[in-house]
Amino acid sequence: MDTSSRPSGVIVTGNGKPLPEDKARIAEGEEVFRRLTERPTELLRCATAGSVDDGKSTLIGRLLYDSKQLLADQLQHVEQTSRRMGLQFLDLSLLTDGLRAEREQGITIDVAYRYFATAQRRFIIADTPGHEQYTRNMVTGASTADLAIVLIDVRKGVVAQSKRHAFISSLLAIPHVVVCVNKMDLVDFKQRVFEEIVEDFDRFAARLEISDVTFIPISALLGDNVVQRSEAMPWYQGPPLLYHLEHVHIASDRNLIDVRFPVQWVVRPQSASAPDYRAYAGQVAGGVIRPGDEVVVLPGGQRSRVAAIDTFDGPVEEAFPPMSVALRLEHDIDVSRGSMIARSHNQPTVANGFESLLCWMSERPLDARRRYLVKHTTRTVMVGAIDVRYRIKVDTLHRDESAATLELNDLGRAHIELSSPLAFDSYRRNRLTGSLIVIDEATNETVAAGVILDTEVDTGEASAARQMTDRSANVRWQGTQVTRARRWESLGHTGATVWFTGLPGAGKTTVAAAVEERLIEAGRPAFLLDGDNLRHGLNGDLDFDEQARSENVRRTAHVARLLADSGMIALVSLVSPYAADRASAAALHAADDLPFLEVFVDAPLEVCERRDPKGLFERARAGKLAGLTGIGAPYEAPASPDLALDARRATVEQEVDRVIELLIDRGLLAG
Amino acid sequence: MPVSDRQSTYHLSHLRTLEAEAVHVMREVAAEFERPVLLFSGGKDSIALLRLAEKAFRPARFPFPVMHVDTGHNFPEALELRDRRMAELGERLIVASVEHSIRRGRVAEETGPRASRNALQTVTLLDAIAEHGFDAAFGGARRDEERARAKERILSFRNAFGQWEPQRQRPEVWSLYNGRVRKGEHARVFPISNWTELDVWQYIAEERLEVPAIYFAHEREVFLRDGMLYAVSPFVELMDGERPFTARVRYRTVGDMSCTGAIESSATTLAEIVAEIAGTDVTERGQTRGDDRASEAAMEDRKRQGYF
């Protein structure tokens, strides 16, 4: 049937009579249809977030209204209801507050989806409530978003909720964030007020991974800078919101590099016409697949080649995200639902566990006694253990390491151990192969959503550290262990890292410097990496908050590893307060077969404070220095260091002796 | 050429993106549930669903039967198309009949000029789901249809009484659908949740699918009630002051004859329908569905009771 042909069925109801043919009208219909379909439009998914009173519903109503997407009966409904409520203006929030319970309480309960289109694009808006108890709904609405709209009430500025929304956007790796500073009319459209909020938000967002942030001053109620440029804010040079939504570049947000094809369903007609047909159906999660590609089927690891890519409309030459297709392979190998097809030279990590960030979504807290399942792509496996490392206080990004469980709307870092392996990528690399849900086996409830973390920031076991080299498939580590062995041989000694950790003022650098001196005297090259010195150069850009401290440790660990590899004994003197960060440093060395010794310079806080060589404690106590380890920030003592030095009981000389003994003991130094 | 430019050629139109998503949903449900069923009404949305099922499972047969809840007040054109389409596809059709539920005393026929079997279908549907042991039912509902639908998940869980509990919906993240249900519970699955009315028509036109003839403009004997045009039929009683007249109309939705209104239109081809929808200024349910006009929360209430 052609789009211009008339229906073949006959109208039989009542006296229904088809109309006589009208060529002009048919041609006109064809013309409109052609214009609609000739230029394929892109789909943009966006999520909106804001507090209850930030005017989010009004903004969406305004977008629909001003872009003429609002239909007469919807508008009539808004007009009637606004009048009944005694309002002087159109309450556009009535368009989106759908359920009776919401209208009664004046809140938005759940994610609501809105659809509108312009000549440029088709939009799906996931409208999510902003109030605290519904963090899970924001995660639900925003998980697939290309863009997040964070709404801030200009009179309130950046509040806890704005931070939560920014953090969740970062966590979900939403590629684009638009901060709409709303209700500008209530501050007389003043530029200064807007800019203060921009600065404030930037300060917080600098600690997050958000690649693209745009700020727009708007008044959703009056329509300024929503669809039409505001005349009241000539100082704002950027485009209005709708223009930005229509033009933001999203085509390159997909991963077209790593071929990932989770098998959903095996198509086997077993019919007379196609007795041997067998194809693996699924939606492409990454990369571009072509017939002839060499592939590997994970987690089994069998290899084959793509014979053909089938669709209902015939075979195609290329498949890319988000196409749903069916692959036929050249060889008859074991492929079933839950298998992951990848290119042989570019494979995801296959492991029984990983580090993750979880958003807990159930009223029943995480409980080690319950049985959980993880669903990842098309594979569902039993969970061995979920080990909570810390809970994140979203408003401050502070880590609560004492947390042993996660409750409704908590965000936390956890290691997940599985009963059988999964093939996965980090979420940053691929949102589809790096995400998962946790299901309670007894209730069937979806209790958590999770993202798999990059092992770069992993506290990882050796397996996790190994993944790191796999991860950057295009950046191969140059050199091998063979050349290292030859290097060490020609030098006549091996490299190693000795990591001194302890409170500020415990005497780490004093001991480490003395060890350095003793080693060099003995003809053994050694190098002191002092935390303070590194902060002058390599780590000069880092702050003292939690994330910056982790990064400080990470960079220092990498430098130490290079020195050790070169044959030096790297002596690291760094507070390094978090056990997880020190564990990553150790894992980094372990993955490279390099010796790593953790030395705990143990001194009670009172002793350190009394010594206070840099005057840090004095300033902290006077309130002039925030977040000093031991006072305003936690220090996690090592549970089982290679060596613990008690600063109260020994002289520096004795401490140096003990470190040297340790090195001899481990075969790193001749006795 | 820079990489980003080259990449942008791997482009899927919004409609094909929606199609890929719907196919993904259908395959997930077929894989995770034991006994799915596809609900077919003969309307445009379920016609699109049948095509999506072909896209998902051909060259094999559908891994589920197709079921029609027959109110007995259907447009004969919809039934005729249903039977022809099922014969072409070679798939199994189950007909669950409201008439049968009435005879068995499960429901009582409404009386009076506004009588409709629309509400009664809920019981017939739930009975059929229980009788066949279905644990998932595909439907053609879309979120753009109505405000309550806008809040419903793609996999929408129903308790043992078939009820929707809006405050207890499972979170739905990425494309990870949790398809686990207990015995007696089931899920309604809406693969075209994210489609709009215009998308459906554009898809039908692009895929050249056949739809019942009543979607196209024709001359018909109608009467005016509550601002809507209803067909004169044996299933509707005229009230005082309602005078039948002949008008040039077409149907925008195909439901029960007793509660589906026609619109004035001259669109005689699919392209004209697409053009008409693209330029319309009234929503489809607002214009043609008497069942949604009863109260402000009409759809929400019916969904809570187990409606489609």
Write structural notes for this entry.
The complex is a heterodimer of chains A (671) and B (308). Chain A has four domains: 212 residues, Rossmann fold (3-Layer(aba) Sandwich), CATH 3.40.50; 77 residues, Translation factors (Elongation Factor Tu (Ef-tu), domain 3), CATH 2.40.30.10; 103 residues, Beta Barrel (Elongation Factor Tu (Ef-tu), domain 3), CATH 2.40.30.10; 183 residues, Rossmann fold (3-Layer(aba) Sandwich), CATH 3.40.50.300. Chain A is 28% helix and 25% strand. In chain A, the strands form four sheets. A seven-stranded antiparallel β-sheet of chain A has the order 8-14-11-12-13-10-9, with no helix packed on it. The longest helix of chain A is centred in the C-terminal third of the chain and has 21 residues. Chain B has two domains: 194 residues, Rossmann fold (3-Layer(aba) Sandwich); 85 residues, no CATH class. In chain B, strand 1, helix 3 and strand 2 form a beta-alpha-beta unit. Chain B has 308 residues and is an alpha/beta fold. Chain B has ten helices and ten strands. Strand 1 of chain A pairs antiparallel with strand 7 of chain B.
